[in-house]
Amino acid sequence: MSADHDSLPAQALALAASATCPAWLADYRARAQRALQDTAFPGRKAEAWKYTSLHALTQSAALAAGATVSRASVPADDLPPLDAWRVVFVNGRYDATQSSLPAGGELIVAPLVSLPDAEQAHARALLALTDTARLPFAALNGAAFADGLLVRVPRGATAGKPLHVVFHATGDAPATAQACLLVSVEAQASLTLVEQYTGHGDNLFTNAVTAIDLARDARLVHARLDFADHRQFHVGSLHLNLQGGSRCDAWQLMTGSRLKRTDLACTLNGAGAELALKGAWLVGTDEHADTQARIDHAQPHGTSDQSWKGLVGGNGKAVFNGRIHIHPGAKQTSAELVNNNLLLSADAEVDTKPELEIYNDDVKCSHGATVGQLNETGVFYLQSRGIARPDAELMLALGFVNAMVDDVPVPGLAGWVHGRFARWFAQRSGRPGGSR
Amino acid sequence: MLEIRNLHANVQGKEILKGLSLTIGSGEVHAIMGPNGSGKSTLAAVLSGRDGYEVTAGEILFNGEDITGLAPEERARKGMFLAFQYPVEIPGVSNLEFLKASLEQVRKAQGKDVWDAVTFMKKAREACTKVNLDQAFLKRGVNEGFSGGEKKRNEIMQMLLLEPALGILDETDSGLDIDALQVVAQGVNSLRDAGRSFVLVTHYQRLLDHIVPDHVHVLAGGRIVKSGGKELALELEEKGYGWLKDAAAAG
Amino acid sequence: MSEPSSHQAPRPADPAGTEEASHLDKVIASSYEAGFVTAIESETLPPGLSEDVIRHISAKKNEPAWLLDWRLAAFRRWQGMTEPTWAHVHYPAVDFNAVSYYSAPKSMKDHPKSLDEVDPELLRTYEKLGIPLAEQAALAGVAVDAVFDSVSVATTFRGKLAEAGVIFCPISEAVREYPELVQKYLGSVVPQGDNFYAALNSAVFSDGSFVYIPKNTRCPMELSTYFRINEAKTGQFERTLIIADEGSYVSYLEGCTAPMRDENQLHAAVVELVALPGAQIKYSTVQNWYPGDEHGRGGIYNFVTKRGVCHDNARISWTQVETGSAITWKYPSVVLKGDNSVGEFYSVALTRNLQQADTGTKMIHLGRNTRSTIVSKGISVGRSSNAYRGLVRISPRAENARNHTQCDSLLIGDACGAHTFPYIESRNPTATVEHEATTSRVSEDQLFLCRARGIDAEKAVSMIVNGFCKEVFKELPMEFAVEAGKLLEVSLEGSVG
Questions:
Q1: Which residues of B touch C467 (CB under 8 A)?
Q2: How far is A290 from chain C (nearest CA, A)?
Q3: CB C496 within 8 A of CB C24
Q4: Would you say A148 and A29 are in contact if contact means Cβ atoms under 8 Å apart?
Q5: Strand-pair category, A349-358 with C417-426
Q6: What's the structural domain count of chain C?
Q7: Residue among C412, C420, C435 whose CB faces A361 most closely
Q8: Does any domain span residue A434?
Q9: CB distance B51–C18 less than 8 Å?
Q10: Contact partners of C by the rule of 3+ C-beta pairs under 8 A?
Q11: Chain C contact for B57, CB < 8 A?
Q12: ipTM score of the complex?
């Protein structure tokens, strides 16, 4: 078991050694490299990796191959039709030809390699939010990233259009790409952000880190989409810091891949912060998706409300861990989490663990988790109205997950995601309903 | 029945009641009115002995006895009853179980016989009927999932059973529709007699159309700034509280 | 009741800003009624663990060679294992060589044949604990096996049970009298190497109860074992084995207490239940080991492995009321091996002062149409920590399996911890698993409403707690439901001022 991972640190350190970065990031780079050296890559005895093996990644040539520089256009089909500013990274490098940056002062968007001096302090502050000590892949990202993006909405400003950031991984040869997205929404400012991972090709590993800070009374709508080629590997972490009175409405939407692991670390770090999080994963044949959501209520009067749905077919395996941690001072906290899963086939597997850790009594907390199957009464009802069983199943299964995106306040996004879900059902679910 | 002498009380170190005096005779109904923040609910809380309200001076005599230092349960057992502005939910403890424990303690302390199970159920059902509350509520957790109106009626139902000597209604009329308001009023009126007094704490005159008070007092700045008969309530309804502010400042 | 402690940790100012402590704030030590020591001469092995100690225990009990070999094999496995650290409990490392692994009253050396021959001091001990062992004085309908440190001192109503063919005796005796049954089932549910403490227990287990219910027999009485740790510096390592043959039924209850001591004492038991096709076992526990004082000094370390296996159409119910022990590490589990079998777990765990509990269950669904129900009620008071940890596993073969879990926490005071760690693993698309968890608290507002209606704070807390635990108490045999209710009242005494 642990032997699987013995080569990981060596591969990771080799990668880090060959990476270059701007001089102003040297401190952070050094810290991440130290963390990487000190970190044992997790075996499955580690509680956080109990249900996910890194075996497939270690065996692939992706990590050893390191970064490749290539240019490729993101196929139009991969992009939701949004009226938005767009920034595209291909294999971890900023691609100006496919990007359209905002000009006005209400939204500052700049690649890290060419970051103006005045913005560097902001980027460093955001990088400090990443938990490189706990998450070895975040340390790897810090030790090896070549570029990234800083997004900043100044105090009181409202970004006029959504910002769409695309990390595209493509190529014929094995490769690893580091993605780094840093977002600061300053006091009373507001932003709509669509963060997307796309890609085609086998043996490509994307290792992503996103750090977001919402200052006092800031607002963020954040959709994170991950529908890359199922043959790829993806490890990502989102570090979200909510200061007093800020609010984040977030969506995590994904299909599975050979190895997918997403860590969310959200801290309600100021009084009255609010987090509403909806997520859906669709995991099918030869796919794996492991989502770990950790919410820390560190300050009073915070609210977090999470709803996660999983659709698991084929021989897919979906893993979820939703941990809510209420600190002693976080009085008057309200925290809820629901995770519902449908198993679509005999070889599918769901491992879910909603957790509560509560250290004060003035809280309202609940969680629930279910694993079940399509509602037979519902199927029968549709059949009795003349709909064939496979179609009835398709409708019910897609309805189950589509409901999670219906209220995304980004015009054009929900319909596009519904289409992606339907495509997954046809290709990966192992059910006949999709192959009409 | 109740005599409040020069009462000063602090909440979180801030003085809210600043020398309030009031005398309530047997069989009388007194309305305490006043603008928001005048100290009305503080008065109700202090009378019932709630924690967090510190009496710094003055005294409260109930039937001649100083009760300022008594615990809330001791006051309840002496015949005082507070109808809460926001009745609390106690999931898992049924209304019946709660009432039974309450009645046992209060009646025992008052030297009355403790009802047997049959009598208790009969009385509880009657009380429900009087306040138009379905008997199913008896089996539910105390106020658990009750609507605002149901909670208030539940308070009055408890009062009917406990037959207190002094009933203190803290903004019982807030958030009630006219039907529920009438139910509350009927409950109070049915208990009115020469040996029983009421204090109605309210912001609006509306309740007083249905429970006609003997005396009306205006509370402002932690003191009673004006007292009168029931016509004072109408005057307040018409003019608002603004004209009294000067009186409060001057006092 | 003792006086309020003056050494409480500083607390944040309460919102109402009162000078005097709030009612929930006065979390003080209540009495532990079973905390006395029986003055009796004991024969106690010096502390330490080695093959010689194991040989000594085995010789004391006149065991056959196969069992000594079994113990030694377990000991060798244990030596290669490390203590589990995944539970949400914190305590200094246990020195396993500072514990005595065998202690018995000297008077038990001559193997008394009847109650008349048992040292009256021992009988008085059980009487004080409310467990009279003389049959005429005993609770009608309950047979008791009384285990004192490492030996069973008496087992009541054996004659009456024998008439029904029921075997109820100390396991040390069963090893001699019914070797074929013991050899077949010992370690069949909890293998030697299952975990660190199970391996330790397999090496050094002293006494415990053995139960066999013949086919199609309804056990005519409740069976009960009462465990008492008395001697200082000793651990108790009992082993219980219950076999319910096809179509039979038994209800079994265990109770446990220990004296108040400043040291921590170790209790590492193993309980194995075998429910053969169509059998039903109802296993209830009222655990009241000494929990330590208000500063967290002393108390039992309770590291227990309990597991049952259900064959076709069988049912196992675990009901536990846990109020004692400084540390609780305990997950009574059911392996639902047979089709249509049913597993149930009903638990109330109360922690006070600095007690820490990490308890829950495992429901392993292997057979078709298997059902499980979990109801867990955790009550955290003071500075204690109370965690539910559970596993529901649906194997690929478990067609139409069903699980429902309800997991509620009640917090009393703002410095306690309540945690929930449920693992759900499902690998069959026809199975349905549902898990729900909630938290609530006893608030000052609730107490004030009760007090304003003339109900004092202690009575109010006890009403709220009893309401919270109702679903579990109704699963206990009648006599014990009352006892459990009282126990909670005693435990909560003084938890409010």
A1: 90-94, 97, 141
A2: 13
A3: yes
A4: no
A5: antiparallel
A6: 1
A7: C412
A8: no
A9: yes
A10: A, B
A11: no
A12: 0.89
CA atoms within 13 A on the CB side of B241: 20
Q: Which residues contact A204 (CB under 8 A, 6 or more apart)?
A: A62, A91, A169, A170, A171, A174, A175, A176, A177, A229, A232, A233
pTM over 0.90: no
Q: Is A375 on the interface with C (CB under 8 A)?
A: no
Residue C2 resides in a domain = no
Residues of B in contact with C377 (CB under 8 A): none
pLDDT (tens digit, 0 to 9) for every residue of chain C, 497 residues total? 333 333 333 333 333 333 333 433 333 335 677 778 888 788 888 899 999 999 999 998 899 999 999 999 999 999 999 999 889 999 998 999 999 998 888 877 777 777 777 788 878 887 777 777 776 666 667 788 888 887 777 788 888 899 999 999 999 999 999 999 999 999 999 999 999 999 999 999 988 899 999 999 999 988 988 888 888 888 889 999 999 999 999 999 988 887 788 888 899 999 999 999 999 999 999 888 888 888 888 899 999 999 999 999 999 999 999 988 899 999 999 999 999 999 999 999 999 889 999 999 999 999 999 999 999 999 998 899 999 999 999 999 999 999 999 999 999 888 899 999 999 999 999 999 999 999 988 888 888 999 999 998 888 888 888 888 888 888 887 767 777 677 777 666 655 53
**What is the residue whose two structure tokens read 């009626």?**
B153
- Is the minimum CB–CB distance between B76 and chain C shorter than 8 Å? yes
| Domains: count for chain B | 1
Could you please report the per-residue DSSP string of C164-218?
TT-EEEEHHHHHHH-HHHHHHHTTTSS-TTSSHHHHHHHHH----EEEEE-TT-B
DSSP A69-97: ----PPPGGGS---SSEEEEEETTEE-GG
In this structure, are residues C250 and C244 in contact, taking their beta carbons and an 8 Å threshold?
Answer: yes
Domain with A338 in it = 3-428
Rounded CA-CA distance A118/A219 in Å is: 24
What is the domain range of residue B61? 2-250
Which other chains touch chain B, taking contact as 3+ CB pairs less than 8 Å apart? Answer: C
Contact by Cβ (8 Å): A284, A422: no
**C449–B12 CB contact, under 8 Å:** no
Residues of B in contact with C466 (CB under 8 A): 92
- Say yes or no for a CB contact (<8 Å) between A366 and C438: yes
Domain coverage including residue C423? 33-444
Interface with B, mutate which of C24, C412, C446, C453 (most B CBs under 10 A)? C453
**Position A229 in a domain:** yes
Q: Which of C420, C424, C431 sits opposite A356 (nearest CB)?
A: C420
**Residue in chain C lying closest to A368 (CA):** C436
Q: Which residue of C has its CA nearest to B50?
A: C448
Close Cβ partners of A59 (under 8 Å, ≥ 6 residues apart): none
Q: Inspect the interface and report whether the beta carbons of C436 and A353 lie closer than 8 Å.
A: no
- Pairwise CA distance, residues C160 & C172, whole Å: 21
- Contact in structure between C336 and C369 (CB atoms under 8 Å): no
Residue A62 placed within a domain: yes
CB-CB neighbors (< 8 A) of C14 in chain B: 52
Interface test with C, best of B93, B96, B110 (most C CBs within 10 A): B93
CATH at residue B43: 3.40.50.300
Chains with 3 or more CB pairs closer than 8 angstroms to A?
Answer: C
Residue C383 forms part of a structural domain: yes
A46 touches chain C (CB under 8 A): no
Q: Which of C14, C416, C430, C435 to mutate to test the interface with A (most CBs of A within 10 A)?
A: C435
Domain assignment present for residue C10? The answer is no
- A71 Cβ contact partners less than 8 Å away, ≥ 6 residues apart: A90, A95
A318 domain-assigned? yes
